[in-house]
Amino acid sequence: LLTTFEKSGGMPSVEMLDTYGALLFRIGRMDEATQKLALCLKACGQTPTRVSALYHLAMVQYETGQGQDAAANLKFALQLHERVGGLSARQLQESRRRLNADFSSK
Hints:
Layout: H1 2-7, H2 14-26, H3 30-43, H4 48-63, H5 67-84, H6 89-104
Helix pairs in contact: 2-3, 2-4, 3-4, 4-5, 5-6
């Protein structure tokens, strides 16, 4: 899937950029994941895809030691999720767990 996406050329949809960024994150390609997710966020409005991309970007940021940026993105994702959706039950649970851990460590 990644090879097909990388070779496809044209401008992918925002949904594809979000998915691609999430896949890059899962295989440890953090810089590339950040780039794809940033492109997604620039191109999408206040949509469920923005919520998903914010969540994925926050996960990358947590993994790369950018906890404050990650927490800010998760908070925004949760606020926007309340209006437009975009997170699965698992993602909601993980977001709240991460934010609670951040809060209790201060």
